[in-house]
Each structure stands twice: as C-alpha cells, then as structure tokens.
Amino acid sequence: MPSCVQSQYSPAKHFLLSIGGARWKEINLVMFTVFVDDSGTDPKQAVAIASALVIPSRRIEALEKEWEELKDKKGFVCFHSSPCASKNPKEEFANWSDKDVRSLFVRVRQLTKKYGVKAISYGVHRSDYDAVLPQQMRDEGGQNHYTWAIRVVLDELDKWAFREREADPFEYLIDWVDPKAEKLRKEEIEMVFARKESVFPGRYEGHYEFKKSCDFAGLQCADLLAWSCYQISLDAFTQKVPHPLASAAFYDFENHRPGWLMAVTQTKEQLTKWAAEQMEDTEASRNHREWLNRYRLSKVKQRVAPKKRTASTPRSSKYLNPV
What pLDDT does 8 receive? Predict the structure, then answer.
C-alpha cells in the first residue's frame, strides 16, 4: 500500500493553482474574513462587520513562509484575535503572558501591512438596520445583517479595482461558513455574489470559495483587521471602550499609508436616506425583484435536478444574465 506523500504546496497555493493554473501569480487574491463572534453575526452582538484584505497573489508564498516561521517561533497553531487578546481559557493562548500576546499582535499587524495592498471594512448597527430598512428591502437583499455589510464591501472593492484599473477578476476566500448550521447565511452570501455577477459578468462566478481561516495566513491577518474595526465600531455606536490591542491595531492600520484602510460605518440618518432613495427608484427595484425571482427559481431547479460536477464546472453556480 503506497504511503501518503505530503504536498509541497500550501493550501493558499493549491487554491491559486486550482483557479489560475500557470497564471496563478498574475491573479490578485481578495480574502474576506467573517467572524462568527467578532463580526457581529452572533445575534447577541450590536454591530455586524464585513472586512476584506487585498493581497497580490505573487506575495502569497512569501507571506505563508513568514507565517510558518512566526508560528514556530511563538508556538501557536491558529491565530484568532478575540480569544488571543482575552487569553480565553479554552483556547491555546490561555497561559500566555501579556507580553507574549502583545508581541504576537504586533507581528501580525506588521505582516498584514507588509503584504496587504488594500483593506476595506464596513460596519452596521444592527438595531439601526432593523429599524430603518423596510421589510421589502430585507426580503430582496437578505435578512442577515452581515449580508448587507458584505454587499457594501464588494461595492467598495469594485470601485477601488476600477480606479486602479484592475481588469482581472479577484479571487475571494471567505472564512468558513458551516453549510449545515449556517445554511441561510451561506445562501445569502452566495446570492450577493450572484447578483454582483449579473452586473459584472465574469468577475464573480467561479471566483470565490469558503475556506477555514486556520489554513490561510491571509485570513488570519484579515481576522485582526476585522476584529479591530469591530471594536472601534462598537465604540462609535455604543460607546463601549475598545480593547487596547484592538485600538493599537486599528490606528496602526489607519496610519499605515494614506487610503490603505477604508473603514466605514453608517449612521441611522444615513441609512434612512439611502433606503428612501432606493425605494423611490422604482425601475431599479423592479429589475432587482425580477432578477431575484429568476435566481430563486434557478436554485429550486438545481435542488430538484442536481447536476454532476465535472472538471470544467465552475466552483460556484451558473448565474443569470444582467437585467
């Protein structure tokens, strides 16, 4: 019986090779990290956050190498900002000293700035969202607060890409969403990508995956980005004093380079104005409803008659034409 041979490639390079083949170094990789707790997807949290860290694919191998060196030096398996900062007794950082925790945060910040070329984060206050957005808009755009946040982040990434004249599609790594326990949230995220694909054909379909953050250094860097932005958003919305390590990270990112970090929140008044403008645009609203009906019908048909996946089948579903 042949023995198993360990792959020479990291999970990140495997992913890039699978979508880009020999051209993988030419592709930009955008990694969205979604935190079940710290991004506010937990119903008990006051703020929902979506964050994205853009890393050139040609730099992924160098980041992975430095990350492995950091893990060996510090002695950890997987970096998660919240349990590390709090030294959660159930996590691997439980017995770390304050000095060691601070040192690790500093190094993760350094790597995030070194390899990231752009960082975008959007936060929404859950109670404002619930109070302001009409039920019709939530029915059409997704019930989950995070769905709204990721839509805004994708829009801002498009604007940045067009300003930078980045014509090639980005590749999106989204922090793992359990398809059983969080089925609705996963379906809503897929719907967001499908709608974007209908507007910009070729930029989204087959260009995203759900992956576990512990397998990707970039996602763990994005973890710190999102956690720090979440803590600052809590302060803005609820006056809760952020964790000192979160404040240090956020202002370090903010002062890194002009325009490197785009961290956005919307007040209740801003949300109210935006919702009113959208409801007044009856043509756009009608077009979106028609697209949504076709999309939902296509998903029903897929469930009734699933097709076998082949080597040429994109990783995500075939979507519909622009309206």
Answer: 58
**Which helix (H) or strand (E) covers residue 176, if one does?**
none
Is 30 strand, coil or helix?
strand
User: Would residue 177 be called left, alpha or beta, if left means φ above 0 and alpha means ψ between -120 and 50 degrees?
Assistant: beta
Phi, then psi, of 321 in degrees rounded to 5: -70, 160
In-domain check, residue 200: yes
Please give the tally of structural domains in the chain: 1
pTM: 0.84
In a domain, 9, yes or no: no
Structural domain includes residue 282:
no
- CATH number for the domain that contains residue 114: 3.30.420.10
CB 105 within 8 A of CB 249: yes
Q: Render pLDDT for 190-210 as a digit per residue (tens, 0 to 9).
A: 999 999 999 999 888 888 888
Cβ atoms 264, 154 nearer than 8 A: no
Q: Which of 141, 149, 158 is nearest to 285 (CA)?
A: 141
Classify 29 in phi/psi space as left (phi over 0), alpha (psi -120 to 50) or beta.
beta
Beta-ladder partners of 29: 55, 171
Query: pLDDT digit string (tens) for 43-96?
Result: 778 898 889 999 888 888 899 999 999 999 999 999 999 999 999 999 999 999
Cα–Cα distance between 69 and 190 in angstroms, integer? 35
| Nearest-angstrom CA–CA distance, 132 and 276 | 9
Residue 317 lies in a domain: no
User: Given CA atoms 257, 258, 264, 267 in this order, what sign does their dihedral have?
Assistant: positive
Domain range for 185 is 27-267
Structure tokens at 71: 């893990």
